[in-house]
Every structure is written in structure tokens, then in C-alpha cells.
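Q: Predict the assembly, please.
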Amino acid sequence: MRDRAILLCWLSAVVVITFVHEPRALGGLLLIALVAQGGSAPKIALRALVAVALVNLTVSIAFIVSAWLSGSDWMTFVLRLNLRVFLLALLTFWMIRHVDLARAAAPWPSLQFLIVLALGQIRTFTSLLADYRMAFSSRSPTRPPLRTRFGSAGRQASAMLDKAERQSEELNQGMRARGFFDREFPQ
Amino acid sequence: MHIPDGLIAPQAYLAAAAIAVPCWAYAVKRVSSALDERAIPRLAVLTALAFVLSTIMLPLPGGTSAHLYGMGLLVLVFGLWPAFLAFSLVLALQALLLGAGGITALPVNALTMGLAGGAVVVGARSLLGANTAAWATVFPVWLGVVVAATGLALVLGAQPLLGSDTDGQPLFFPFGPAVTLPVIVLPHMVIGLLEGILTWMVLGVLQARRAAA
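A: Predicted assembly structure:
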């Protein structure tokens, strides 16, 4: 219940903030969000900053250059863009820290099960991919040519596909064996 | 190609959500009716696969690299609707667990990259019939990536039209299609070609393995 409430609050806040355009109001909201996060604020702010830095810097610099060339004002837009995008990212990382997505999906057992299964499979595949990458780099004392690296990426993707097909069947059989698909099974 | 939160106007993302929600509902119906009880494990594995495929790096000349988009491969192996659903779930998980991409941009990203890009791959591939030449895989995937990139560029490029303040300053993404189309589409013409070649290679390896099994 708590997770769903936080998720809903966050989603509402995100939508509302996209309707706020005044830089001073956005700055005020950012300040409130930072203060509300207490001791964890610096860590969350750093994560949010890293996540938005590339897009914000690119758009801001391009806008400043084009405004400078045309002799128009750029400050209001640059403040508006950076404050809003940073505030939204900050709220998202705060939400990620406080919400367990699987618990939030509890009223919908199929969705909850899908999320749990998908996250588990992502960990399995990510670790397999890391193994492939380490094996490839250990076999390559110098930087391999483009063709070799391209071939390696292709083999990684086909190994993942192969694994996914087998994994899907194994999961299905495992769930069937444990009675997940039986109507009386308490989902 | 992900768009973060705060760059798209509510008029655009709410309209995209109004289109995306029925598409997701239809995709769930299609996947459930085609796979019955196997739908959940199949979809979970597909989602994980799409997530991990998007972390595979495509090497580019000059020592740099780009992420594999993965939609072309998923669509050609599993079909449009399961691939669209898995791709949308990946975007949602990336936004809700990693803070990558945005939740307001999710419907736009899903519709352009997942549905429009995927449908173009399927359409172009079916037009080529039983042709087994390399280009019959490379071209549809390239076209799908370029169409997806064009869609995103047009959505971003439309933002200046959707809002400006009393001084004429933009409220959201500030550049029009004259900027977004070349900046987004041109690099994706190269990425799409590499992705098409990689997809062809992967499908070749899969077919060879299945023939040997």
C-alpha cells in the first residue's frame, strides 16, 4: 500500500511539474525537494545530476549559442529547462530509493509475477553477458579490430537469444510443476 | 534515443499515452491468446532479453560504440506484439528502476521505437517475401531504426509549437524539426545499418544452430 501511494504521488508530482514554467517556482520546488530528502539529498542529487548532465548540457549550450547568434535572451529558458529536468530526475531517484516495484504491483498478481520474473532473468542475462565480455577481453591482449569486435557483439546477442528461448520453456515447466497455473493455486 | 522527463509538453505525452494504452491492451490480449499460460514466463524472458540486448555495444569506427536497439531482432524472432510489449516493459523498468529515460516520455518512446519501428521492420520484411539474401534482413531493420529515429525527431521538433511564454521563450524542447531531424536521424542511419548487419549475423547463427540440433 505504502509503495503504491509513493508511486502515485511521484507520478502526480511529475505530471504537475511539467505544467510549471516559472523558473522561481521550479527553484522553490527543487529546494523543498532537497530539504525533504534530508541526509540522503547529496547522494540522490549527484545521481540525478549525472543522469541529466549530458542531455541538459547539450540542449543548453546549443540554445545559448543560437540565442547569442540571434541576439535574444537565453537565461529564462536555460534556467527553466535545467531546473525542471533536474527536479524531475531528483524526484525519480527519490522514488526509486523508496519504492519496491514488485510490492507496488501486489494487487495485480500476474503483473507482480512478471516483474519479479523479468528482474530475475535480467540478473541472469546480465551476469552471462559480463562473462562473455570478460572472456572476450581476456582473449584479446591488444584492442581487437572492428570486425572482430562486431563478430563478438553478434555472438553475444545470439547466445542471449538462444538462452532466452530455453529459459522461457524451463520457467514455464517449473511454474507448471509447482501448480502456478492451477486455478486453486493461491496467487 | 531515450527522451528524459521535462522535455516533452503535456499535450504531447498525454496524447501519446492515449494512443499507447489501447495498443498495450491489445498487445496483452494478443500475447495472452497466442501463448495462454506460457504468456507470463515468455514475456518475462523476452523483457529481460530486450533489456540485456540494449546493453550490448555496437562498435563504431574510431573506437566509439553505440547501444544495440534490439527491436528489429526481437520483432523478427518473436513477432510484433510480444516484442512491442517486452520493449515497453523494458522502457518502464529502465525509467522506474534506473531513472533512465522518462516516465512521461515512455508512451512516445514505446510508440516510436517499439510500435512504429517494429511495424516497419515486419512490413518491409514481409514485402520481401522469402528472399534470404543478407540485405532482406539488413534493409528492414535499417528502415525500422530510421523510422523510429524520425518519429522521435518529429515529436521533439514539434515541442516549440506546443508552448512558449509571453517573451517567446520555449517552454519545452527548444529546437524545431530543421535541427532535430538531421541531428537524430543522420547518426541513426549509420547505427541502423550496423544493427541490420548484426541482426542478420545473429539470425544466421541461430538458424545454423537450429539446423545442427
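The mean pLDDT of chain B is 85. The longest helix of chain B spans residues 177-212.
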